[in-house]
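Exercise 7.
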Amino acid sequence: MTDLKKVFDSMEFDNTESMGYNDRVLFIDGLNTFIRNWCAIPTLDDNGNHIGGLTGFLKSIGMQIRNLKPTRVVIAFDGMGGSQRRRQIYPEYKSKRKPITRVNRTYDLETPEQEQAGMHNQLMALTTMLTKLPVTIISLDNIEADDTIAYASEWVVTQGGRSIILSTDKDFLQLITENTEVLNPAKKKHYSVQTVVDEYRVHPDNFVLYRALTGDKSDNIPGINGIGEIKPNSKSTPRLLKYFPEITHTVIDLDYIYDKSVRHQEEAKIYRSIVEGRKIIERNLILMNLRKLNISASSKLKILTTMQEFVPQLDKSALTKLLIQGNFIVGLPNYHSWLATTFFPLLRFYGADHRV
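Solution. The predicted structure, written as tokens, is:
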């Protein structure tokens, strides 16, 4: 019996022992999590190369797995050409994104081009290593991670389970229900229905409509001029709430917003702007709506097939070899106990084999 197996056998578990592997699923927005760690974690290997993106990712999700105790972990990445469908609707979608430059480094050892190459290399190495861990990885061509998580998390709920989405992307707030929550690791905050209402004064069921009205600068999606985003926890009353206070507590749709604007368009400019900008709002709803996904039936089938049939395994030997070869293991202190306490518990729910 290996030392790793001894650690696992000595662990005490809570009442999740009787749960199924789709009962409490942690969905991780892969690229979002990686980039956040790549920017924030300055860890270097013994040769002075930055490795914080990869090691930070593994330690970050490890902490969430230990804290949340999910029965399953699903990590989604954008597939090749992931934005293509949305660019067909709006060619300028994500077109003005600049290379990431805001990084936490006290050293200046690389050019911006070398930093970008290093980021790419770490991401490629990470995706290979994740296949050696008991997590489900989904990446489909022409499908963005947001769509994959939205569809798979909804399926989990229909099976009687609960979904937890790990991401700093505000678009996921529209998916929140009694059985789906969002964890923003940057804010260290869990979002439930009430949390969204308290912070944004918008009900989650209306959140995509709110986003369609205000737009999304990060994705280069313009909204209606003069409305502006609602600043979280602001004490002042935003213009949108002044003219549409019902967005906080009553589920409404574009027809409601439009009809009210038509009736009152002589009273305020915001109403006239909405009437004139209906096509913009309609386009934005198609681009942003994660509850009504415009993805093919074959893509949906692939997601469901992966969720239903894929059985992850823990291949410690292969993982360790990859970490040593890439000189990443120096960024994972207490590696063996970290591996045992973080990923071994997940195997109970799969009934999977594991190699130690």
